[in-house]
UniProtKB/TrEMBL annotation:
Source organism phylogeny: Eukaryota, Metazoa, Chordata, Craniata, Vertebrata
Protein name: C-type lectin domain-containing protein
Superkingdom, taxonomy of origin: Eukaryota
Pfam name, any one: Lectin_C
Species name: Perca flavescens (American yellow perch)
Keywords for this protein: Disulfide bond, Lectin
Amino acid sequence: MARFVHREQLEITDYVNLPEPSARSVGQDGGETAAGSGGKLYRVVAVSFGLLCILQAALNISLRLYTFYSKTPDIELSCTNLTGDLRRELITFDRFSQQGWVYFRRSFYYISTNQTSWHKGRADCLQREADLVIINSKQEQDFTRQFNKVLWIGLTPKVANRKWKWVDDTPLTESYWSPGEPNGFEGKDEDCVETRFLDMENSWNDIPCTDQNFWICEKMIAL
């Protein structure tokens, strides 16, 4: 019994007295190996190189941004001006729309709700800082027909040579006369023009200026 206890104590003593393993690598001659220190040095070099690359990239980006903004010092001012111009255009568009004007191809148009003579219709347009419409294209001609009204337009003959001209004194170069027009029907002084035959593209008709018609004003505004 005593011998057994002594053996167990001996085994415990041997276990306790075992030397702790060293954290360092030891060579055959008892010296430290270079594997541990070499690995640490490699990691330090790799991390340093990575940081250097990041620093170089950041420097390149900074130089590009500096060059861009130094060449465009008015970029913020330009954006501000653009915003201001757009705001003014929207205000102008809203103001004319509320007054009954219709926008089409860089012009505003006002179609009257009552009828009067050609001269009084034009006077109303001038009071609105506009004039009777000048039709310069097929698209504008089609536009005037869509309102389904017989309308005065800004065309009248010159007094001197009786050639047709627009209210801004430009000569008539593109016309949309109805067949047989202008004709001075029954010898009348038909010195004003209306858009009468609305189901036809060529809808113009000459008529006495004292007749009663609706009228259409045009006001050119660059938006």
